[in-house]
Amino acid sequence: MEAVGGEEELGLGFPFWVAACRRFKPGDPFFAAGDIERELIAKHVALDLTEDERYQLQKMEGGGINTVLCPIVGCGAQLNCLEDFEDHYHARHTASCSVCSRVYPTSRLLSIHVSEAHDSFFQAKVARGFPMYECLVEGCGVKLKCYKSRQQHLVDKHKFPRSFEFYRKAHPSKHQRQKYQRRQAAYRWEGTKETHMDVDRNTLKQPRQKYRPKQAGPESEETNMEVEEKIDNLASAVSKLSTSDSTPSSISFGHRHARGFAFVPRSIRQNQKQQSDAKR
Amino acid sequence: MADEGVSPPSQRRDSIKSSVHNTAAQRRRQHAIAVGKERREALIRTKRLCRVAVVDDSEVLLEGDMLVDEEKAVLDSQTSQTVEDLKSALSYHGKGATQKKIEILRALRRLLSKSEVPPVEAALQAGAIPVLVQCLSFGSADEQLLEAAWCLTNIAAGEPEETRSLLPALPLLIAHLGEKSSVSVAEQCAWALGNVAGEGEELRNVLLSQGALLPLARLMLSNKASTTRTAAWALSNLIKGPDPKAATSLIRIDGVLDAIIRHLKKSDDELATEVAWVVVYLSALSETAVSLLVKSDVIHVIQLLAGRLAASESLQLLIPVLRSLGNLVAGDSYITDAVLIVGHDITDQVLSGLVKCLKSEHRVLKKEAAWVLSNIAAGSFEHKELIFSSEATPLLMHLLLSAPFDIRKEVAYVLGNLCVAPAKGAGQPSIILRHLVTLVNHGCLPGFINLVRSADIESAKLGLQFLELVLRGMPNGEGPKLVEREDGIDAMERFQFHENEEMRNMANGLVDKYFGEDYGVDE
């Protein structure tokens, strides 16, 4: 019942829903429950089973067929049934960030996120040229100098899709989108601004950006904070890079508990506060 | 138990007592667990222990209670002894030899049919098979044949190796199916052979090569209900494949199709059940069977099946009847196209039978009925309209949101099939907007998004495919908003670290296309 056409539209060969007849062979696991029921009834025991026995039998149903293989990359856990899988997933694959509440499926990924998003020491080392961006695939061990090259590595070496994004661009609520669009209009009205980095402009064009590295202000402003600011700009801007040239991917990661929550690295938030203080 | 300590000596005694007690209790518990596990496995096996005589007027009914707690060792030694006795009896050819043999056989049979887990291993180790084979020799007294076949039946009902041990006995068992045999003997042999066939493909092939099919089929034409029933059951084990040859041969045998129709029409639930299972395997396996049915009398068969579906309340009958219908619908498009014509009585009958199953409390019925509906919903536009406007739709919606996973998956297939027009060549199949909009407005979206979250790839794929329909098809570009509102984006994002590349691409593709840069810009 698989894909017929559709290449034109989504360009990825999306297998559209096709209504097709499905046939099963007699031994198919699909029929297992019915087969077991048949045997239980024939042996006149259906009524004699305790709740527990029934549950055990349902678990035994088809034996290995009900086994769920955890699909998270690198896990390989085998669970007996879907309930067990849900338990396993919640126990082993959800870890949340204490700073921004984002959820990640492994503690390793969580710690990578914390380093890259909330650790100013990490950013400092990046700014000084150390390869800090770890490959996301456990066991690879490669470290790259910037987010973009790590993305490239994932695509090249690990066959990740180009549209993959580790960094979440949170999907703003309608209110936030409108706010941004108003700001966007006001910003444009004030005239074009030279920014320190091209990257800034690119990020500004992305409608979901909620933080701009600079408030509106005179070009020539040079403060002590600017050095830090540059580093922070680099960090935040690079973090918003996308590898796909056309439409940026908006995939973010994990169950989002902080919906509509603006993701702003703490270091940048602090800086912003200082800047707005300075402006007064 | 252990903490009664009063004075040292009695305390010591108590602790010894309790430790012994504990050991014994532990042993019993372990035995219970082992029996529990064996019992569970025995329960779901396609082999059946014979505990009651097949002879109608027998006075030898179930005597006493099941020996549940009987010490295994005692049972085993009794069994070994009985086999030894039988060996001696066989070498004695004098007066009353036959009676002696029959008595011992009866004792062995009782040992093998009373307890929870019969002492099969002990019997085999004592050399039961060769003696039992001897007892089956041509010309033996009916009662001897009966008891011997009964012993073999129960030996074959256990573990695979135990079933396999019957190999030397097979030709004789098959032979005694013959039309000159006493009906009870034939029936008991059929039972034994049914257990052998239930073991696996290898043994099935042996039986088929040895010519078991024809005599069993003839037995199914018998007038005696229990014989017909046992024969049908044995046949269902014999033809279940995966090789379709046996099923194809069976349908070709003279009188078989007529007998099937006759029994589906008139017989009591128990007999109709076993015959329906034969139809299940015929319809699932054999193209020939299906096309033979189509050419001859398929409307009649479907009417009978639909009738049983509507009239019966017996789960054991409903399961194979429903499945036969399902196999027929899935097996040949002729059924949906030319038999289940919209507007004809037969179609309404089938549909109402399926709705009845959807309403049932039984999981199997709900799931397989949804499967059948999904295949009918894969038919013509008229079929989709018929199902959509029937009682089925609200039932399906409810099941989508509340039923166990395997049912929800099948329901998803139905609902999705209802929303998509019959495919015409390559390219995007067009959406039946009225159906899609109605279903979405009635709240089906959370159900599909839930499927996207499931661990089962096929279901997740279904969910994503339905989301694509919603995103593409909902008017006024409402799709993305609706999906977002139900946390659909969340669900799709779960695939970021999924190991399956197709799923990653599907999810990413949808998010890129519908929640990309331009999302929400033109508000």
UniProtKB/TrEMBL annotation, chain A:
PROSITE patterns reported in the protein's UniProt record: ZINC_FINGER_C2H2_1
Superkingdom per UniProt: Eukaryota
Transmembrane parts of this sequence: none
Domain C2H2-type: 97-118
Protein name according to UniProt: Zinc finger protein 511
InterPro entries cross-referenced by the UniProt entry: ZNF511 (IPR039258), Znf_C2H2_type (IPR013087)
UniProt cross-references to SMART domains, sorted A to Z: ZnF_C2H2
UniProt lineage: Eukaryota, Viridiplantae, Streptophyta, Embryophyta, Tracheophyta
Designated gene of the protein: LOC105032692
Ranges where the record places region Disordered: 200-224
